[in-house]
Amino acid sequence: MNKLVRLGRSNPASKVLRLHGTIARDIGIAIMSGNYQPGDLLTGEIASSERLEVSRTAYREAVRILAAKGLVESKPKVGTKVSAREKWHMLDPDVLAWAFENEPDLELLNRLFELRDIVESAAASLAALRRTDTHLKTMRQALERMARFTLATEAGRQADQDFHTTLLQATDNPYIMSLTSGVNAAVNTTTMFKQRHRPLPRDPVPDHMRVFETIADKDPVNAQKVMSELIQLALQDTPVRNRSKKPRAWRKAN
Amino acid sequence: MNKLVRLGRSNPASKVLRLHGTIARDIGIAIMSGNYQPGDLLTGEIASSERLEVSRTAYREAVRILAAKGLVESKPKVGTKVSAREKWHMLDPDVLAWAFENEPDLELLNRLFELRDIVESAAASLAALRRTDTHLKTMRQALERMARFTLATEAGRQADQDFHTTLLQATDNPYIMSLTSGVNAAVNTTTMFKQRHRPLPRDPVPDHMRVFETIADKDPVNAQKVMSELIQLALQDTPVRNRSKKPRAWRKAN
DNA sequence: ATAATTTATTTGTCTGAGTAATAAACGACA
DNA sequence: TGTCGTTTATTACTCAGACAAATAAATTAT
Fold it and tell me: How near does any CA of chain B get to the CA of A169, in Å?
């Protein structure tokens, strides 16, 4: 990592990055990909900013962003070093996106879907208990749009998102909402998960319909069950191009 | 919020805050407490830094930290405004700590423990399946220290943390580890959850022992069950001084 | 040998200037 | 009258250079 490539977009919110955001993203990806190891010392502010041909201000703001996400720690006289893995905010949307930016790690992907299964199936269960008729109406409409267009169209994908967003809102739990929507946002913007250049492997509408019905029936047990199945199907349908050469990298720290 | 009070520590990592960290914390608390509402425009950089009597540099770095946690968004010509609640990183350790810094919101606390219940009981289940003998040994030792000292002593609390940390490591899932340890870190450093000035309401050792036994037995079903009970007890034992005047604040956004 | 002191290095903070993005106002044109 | 391109004003963004503060390591005093 030497010269700075500024063009990069591809952050969860998909809005253009400023200079500090670009630098943070570059270093963040370098850390998540193992290019920098925990404990490694970043070169000093002056040297780094000169190498990247940016001002110290911009570089420092990038470091603050990384520190806010638990990836680095700065101390006078010592410098800025990559934090231990336990301190990384693995579920921060940016960190999540950066982790899957380069080489898709199948093990890591499985762990992520393991958590998704746990949380989102529980969310479906809660939604079944707490949903209002308004939630139900919105979900039905989203489902109809999802069927009319398909996931091949932008409108269809938007309907899919609306379905899941409404389901989350029905849980009435801001922590579950934040966690899940953050993971989904990162997943949706990562090229690894995009299936544009091949036929969709399965019609997702029937599976979503089953989730909808259990929530309509206020049946938390089956809502959890069918949502879990939906997650598993999503995992199966996720294309993984190549396995990582260093599986289970997150275990190293111990 | 006008003058800057710099003395504050009390962040998850309990290390002294620099100026930018202090500013970020102050504004972060103001946002989480509802002092600033989503959509509100922060005063410009020049005005803000003058009011706080700090340099624009320090103020800007604080804003970058807040933006990295999804609390604010900056745009030229518009300014920096508080983001919509859906964009907040509710599970970021700092955000979590800031949210409970001021007035304990019982509803919000229940939602947090709802998620803890879901994730940590599932974690216990996974730990029961994946724990090694080394994990088991470490947990047993922590349990013994926990019994010898009590939670009234620092050594006892450390043993408690070690127990839970090892359990998490046994899940072998970095996302679950990150999520849970982040929540626990925030919870542990928040005064609201500290029970120093009163007798401990219950001997926690037997409950922890039951968790340990199910994991030792590689019994995921009962591990989940007894861990869930442990979480519920922790919630019951959490002192809530005063209910919030504005319950369910996170629903406003919809 | 230990503790207090000095020193060197690195991040942290400040100031002031100029740039770039962008929303809103304006004006040309249909 | 309404739409589209242009200008303008505002705000965050980036830069440069200096000085301050924290801290680990080296040094000195006891």
Answer: 9
**Residues A162 and A115 placed together within one structural domain of the fold:** yes
Number of domains in chain A: 2
> Can you give the pLDDT at residue A253?
42
Strand order in the sheet with B79-82: B41-42, B79-82, B72-75
Nucleotides of D under 7 A from a protein CB: 9-18, 21-24
The predicted-structure confidence for A151-208, as pLDDT tens digits, reads as follows 888 899 899 999 999 999 999 999 999 999 999 988 887 766 665 555 556 888 999 9
Q: DSSP for chain B, please give it.
A: --S--TT----TT-PPP-HHHHHHHHHHHHHHTTSS-TTPEEPPHHHHHHHHTS-HHHHHHHHHHHHHTTSEEEETTTEEEEPPGGGS-TTSHHHHHHHTTSS--HHHHHHHHHHHHHHHHHHHHHHHHH--HHHHHHHHHHHHHHHHS-TTSHHHHHHHHHHHHHHHHHHT-HHHHHHHHHHHHHHHH-GGG--TTS--SS--HHHHHHHHHHHHTT-HHHHHHHHHHHHHHHHHTS---S--SSTTGGGTT-
Q: Which residues pair with B81 in a beta bridge?
A: B41, B73
B89–A88: do the CB atoms touch at under 8 Å? no
* Through-space separation of residue A21 CA and nucleotide D10 C1' in angstroms: 23
Asked if residue B208 and residue B146 are part of one domain, the reply reads: yes
Whether A135 is covered by a domain: the verdict is yes
Q: Is the CB of A76 under 7 A from strand D?
A: yes
Q: What is the pTM of this model?
A: 0.92
Q: Above pLDDT 70, what percent of chain A?
A: 84
With 50 as the cut, is the pLDDT of residue B157 above it? yes
Q: Are residues A65 and A107 in the same domain?
A: no
Domain span at residue B171 reads: 103-236
ipTM of the modeled complex:
0.92
Spell out which residues of A between 108 and 137 contact strand C, using CB within 7 Å.
none
* Strand C reaches within 7 A of the A44 CB: yes
Separation between the CA of A102 and the C1’ of C6 (whole angstroms): 48
